[in-house]
Amino acid sequence: MAETTVAIEESRQATIDRGPIYNDFSMVVATINGSGSQTSNMAIIRALFRMGIPVSGKNLFPSNIQGLPTWFTIRVSSDGFTARRETTEILVAMNITTFAEDIENLAPGGVCFYSDDFSVPGNREDITYYPMPVRKLIKKADPPKALRDYITNMVYVGVLSEMLGIEIEEIRRALETHFQFNQKPVDLNMSVIELAADWAKENYEKSDPYFVRREQNPRDRILMDGNTASALGAIYGGVTFAAWYPITPASSLADALEEYLPQLRCQDGGCKATYSIIQAEDELAAVGMAVGAGWSGARAMTSTSGPGIALMAEFVGLAFQAEIPIVIWDVQRMGPSTGLPTRTSQGDLLFVRFLGAGDTQHVVLLPGNINECFEFGWKAFDIAERLQTPIFVLTDLDLGMNLWMSDPLEFPDQPMDRGKILTEEDLERLGEFARYRDVDGDGITYRTLPGTEHPLAAYFTRGTGHDENAVYSECPEHWEANMERLWRKHETAKQYLPSPVIETMENAQIGLIAYGSTDPAVQEARARLLEEDLSTDYLRITALPFADEIKEFVRNHERVYVIEMNHSGQMRQLLQLEIPDQALKLQSIRKDNGLPLSARWIATTLLEAEGE
Amino acid sequence: MSTEVKNSSRRASKTNLIGLSRADYKGMPTTLCQGCGHNSISSQIMAACYENSIQPEKIIKVSGIGCSSKSPTYFMSRSHGFNSLHGRMPSIATGAVVVNRELTAIGVSGDGDTASIGIGQFIHLLRRNLPMVYIVENNGVYGLTKGQFSATADKGQVLKKIGENPFLPVDVCMEALVANCGFVARSFAGDPKQVKELIKAALSFKGTAVLDIISPCVTFNNRGESTKSYAWGKEHADPIHDVTYVQSFDEIEVEYGPGQTTKVEMHDGSSLRLQKLKRDYDPCNREHAMLLLEETRARKILVTGLIYINKDQPSLQEVEDLVDTPLTKLQEKDLRPSPESLMEILEDYR
């Protein structure tokens, strides 16, 4: 026996010797894009979730409609970790073209379910193989011809259900949710699933250690993607106007608006809309319409991704200068340029922070989970109308399009803040109105809405230089005074922004700073580091401009690591600018390869940096 | 006593139906060149709104960038105005009007703003049929940047700095027709009466009303051979009809011979009387409108008047099926759905 074979045998034996492993593995389903695997994968993850098992689901998909490989990863973790796990323990291989590389990527002692049409490549003898007679089972089930291709993927649902212990009743319930209680497709899919489960029971002998089992989880949880949560946040924030242009990975945010607004925001027996949503001809028009609507007095938004932001630069500068409230969602994808349209990144941070010609700076919200997508979704309108300026909300493909387990969304706990608006009565009482006069000293001036029926109400909005009365002016004093006030307003902004989230450990010497979708990976990395006796404090940034607590946090730690998913360490750069005397203390842990960060990578990189 | 009577009668004659005087429609002093066609158009906008008794506060003035786009400052200071970005007026207008259906938008753009940088947004505005008056102050040249060709400049036109223009012009009215615009008019700043009547009609139209008004640039493009000059316009202007706008409450009965006048009813009950001049022309026929533009272009005629009208296309608000209340007037109870509705939604995600 060759040395390697011995080693493989030993590692396999070791895996089995550990005994059964419950609710702690990562599983990847490799299929072909457009083959209908989404229904199967959703059925599996929903069933697991409803068994009380902490799960997360990530779709790694190509920029393609049909034919290219796609992978759906489900992680189950009793410990509640939801970040991307670097290792894959279970493979469901339904795509011959990637079969060899998929097997290569399996962890030692992994498990492979595959369509028995394929011949197993390579020499991974450490793996437990389960060939699935997909064709034979489908022939036996005999579904209507037109549906055959779509239903084929149900075979692995049935097999996994039997081999891992996914409760078949939960699979049925999951399908009922998926098909909105339309019993016919549920029954049809279930017939294949049950057939496959029965076949597996009779023909396989379980020889791998991986199982799932129901957990008694007292917490009320939901399983949702970020774009849906963001859209719902906007709706419960009273969105009245939305314009958008299709772009991956932001389109599903607008889709969710289109899905929920008709049921939630219609009057007169559900036919007259209290909102308007327009698919614009491009992102220039999308943001332009939102600016027009915000100027008119509506809660207006647009949603896009990096390339769309590039087109919006002109209007965002105008909205900053003319002081018009709008909310802009940037569901980030990998750039520069068209980049990787279906891969995640946090590369737009610097871009949106200073987007626009001349001196501009914008308020940026950075939700880090599903709850914050919702919360910042409604708060963004309050902040925009309070500050009369564009508000960016940055998520990314991972947070926006993948499935996350979360506490239920919480209904807004504050009434709407419509900001400083003068009505006819106000104007009558005041007897004067200057659109850009800083009456309260906070940099935020009063505005009137078009249509206000008072001779004093009107003013002229422009991106050009203006005096307090909004009259065109090239006077140096006017220009400087106005810019000073805009900067003062930006300082005022801090009091309206969500606070950073700080979590400490006893005796921690080092501080970690992160933001957005990397939170689960950072959390898990901290747990791993603690096992290595390295305590860490953690601050998660939720908004720009920086809150004072962030500077405090940096000052109070010997070493601070800024963890992020972009190539140039953008948040670290911003922090170094903000606290130049602490600049050398700020270390960067960054990776930007299109995949969400993993806890293992963060922990390993950090330990290396710490010289351990 | 007699003085009092005199005063009150003067007051009556110097105000419109909503009790406002012409001064209530004034803007800031113009900073455009003396003799600029745009100033003349601004005057007709003020006159049209005054005579139509439109509350200035219910008007919004929108524009892009350029000489023409500066002009909203120079009329109706009691209306909110928005001098936005080059070629982007349509999107600003769309957002602003859709959320407040009580507003009447008057957009002023130029040939560079509409036919060059803004042609995309222009076409899509027409496609959506947003109710607004869209005036193109067309002079075939960039003024603010000191005399470059625009997309409506004549082929073969010569400018001092640039030389000869080798390209055929964009015809704003033809573009509007192709984009299914329901109100297409062409006029000449040198014919203020027609300009005013067409603006009045456009203000009564529920949809995008495009007015392509040849408005000479006295500084950069007023040489006699230019089709955008005063001299050329005066010589070649050929109105297809004599336009008179009649408000719904005006009981004017003018006697015309049979077949001499076409009456076009507007959405708000007002009407347009189009008195026949030289030719028989039906402005309700889109194909005829296109032929007219082709023919007059070939014959080097500046055809003016209402070239095409179609009132049957739904406006954007109708398509969107919005509540009657302007969306900007909705209160929190209308805007934020109930906590119970959120609970219900979350059930699907449990």
Q: What does it look like?
A:
The complex is a heterodimer of chains A (612) and B (350). With 612 residues, chain A is an alpha/beta fold. Chain A has 4 domains: 3-211, Pyruvate-ferredoxin Oxidoreductase, domain 3, CATH 3.40.920; 224-406, 3-Layer(aba) Sandwich (Rossmann fold), CATH 3.40.50.970; 424-496, no CATH class; 501-609, 3-Layer(aba) Sandwich (Rossmann fold), CATH 3.40.50.920. In chain A, 39% of the residues lie in helices and 20% in strands. Chain A has 21 helices and 25 strands. Chain A has a 7-stranded mixed β-sheet, with helices on both faces. In chain A, strands 3-4-2-5-6-7 form a 6-stranded mixed β-sheet. Chain A has a 5-stranded mixed β-sheet with strand order 20-22-21-24-25, with helices on both faces. The mean pLDDT of chain A is 95. With 350 residues, chain B is α/β, with parallel strands linked by helices. Chain B has a single domain, classed as Rossmann fold (3-Layer(aba) Sandwich). Helices cover 33% and strands 21% of the residues of chain B. Chain B has 13 helices and 15 strands. An 8-stranded mixed β-sheet of chain B has the order 2-1-3-4-10-9-15-11, with helices on both faces. A 3-stranded antiparallel β-sheet of chain B has the order 12-14-13. In chain B, strands 5-6 form a two-stranded antiparallel ribbon. The longest helix of chain B has 15 residues, at 37-51. Chain B starts with a helix and ends with a helix. In chain B, 51% of the residues are buried. The chains are: A alpha/beta (612), B alpha/beta (350). Chains A and B meet through strand 9, helix 9, strand 12, helix 11 and helix 12 of A and strand 2, helix 4, helix 6, helix 12 and helix 13 of B. Strand 19 of chain A pairs parallel with strand 2 (80-83) of chain B.
